[in-house]
Amino acid sequence: MFANMINELREKLNTADRGGYQCPRTISVRIPAWQRSLHNTYNTSMLNSLHHVVLEPFEQRNSIGTIQLISPVFSIVDDHLSISSTIKSWLADGLHRDKILLDVAMYGVSQQLIAASGNHSGNVIHVQPTQIFNQKQVYLPIHFVSHANYAKNEPRQYGNWKL
């Protein structure tokens, strides 16, 4: 059904009046990082016919009131969910490497862990961010922030930055 919708969309876009513009129209899909196995849900041949498949590396809602940050770039153990493990799985499922785009956020989010001791990738956090930073605010002297500070689960002040 999804493949049929994409084919119909492609047909409509290719026959639609472009209003004098020469640029081709493109079709891409976003798939979340937690969707590691493409062949269970998608037709890989259809995905390879698209211009891009965008890896959405952000959070996943677990239940009412909680989400889980699930997309570190690499995991300590190979079987843990990460951007790297998802890409490896997609390639093994037959998705062409040149189709994959990684969505990188142009904002930052400060979030509070539900359990102060759970300061590892994949730990549960409150749904509502404590603060959203714009692109100019994202730059942060990371070397001042240690894992011990994250475990305290309390706001921290670094110069003008309140985390």
TrEMBL record:
Q: Tell me which SUPFAM superfamilies the record gives.
A: (Trans)glycosidases (SSF51445)
Q: Which residues form a coiled coil?
A: none
Highest taxon, organism lineage: Eukaryota
Ranges for the GH18 domain?
Answer: 2-136
- Would you kindly state one Gene Ontology biological process term found in this protein's UniProt entry? carbohydrate metabolic process
InterPro entries the record matches: GH, Glyco_hydro18_cat
> Which protein is depicted?
Glycosyltransferase family 92 protein
